[in-house]
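Marked as duplicate of an earlier ticket. Keeping the data here for the record.
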Amino acid sequence: MGSIGFGCACLPTGQPDKPWVCGARNIDLDLRVPDRKDIRTTVKEVSGAGTIKSGRINAPVGDTWTEVFFALEGSADERVRIEVHHGDNIERVRPCVPDALYSVSGTGSCDPKHSAAIIMG
């Protein structure tokens, strides 16, 4: 079980008349393993301020925290980095790749057997 912390916050624009970009109150986020389409990520449970919406993380923008439990499944046991990203590209959201490595459950058939945690806010 692992965890990370980061914020879903408004970003400065660099423009004096529009100092911050905050178009959305909530952001839909996905988890993936960069450059590894053979590893499947599955959101199992969300607690705190966020929710699961159609299998994705729906996290509020602001100071609240969301804890996400997920599984990584692939053909072999290994440790990988994950990326939290906004797959819709509706809002300008920077992807986040934490320094931590997470365990992939190598099942050959991608049975969910290992879970990890990610803390977002």
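See parent ticket for discussion. Residues 38 and 97 are 18 Å apart (CA to CA).
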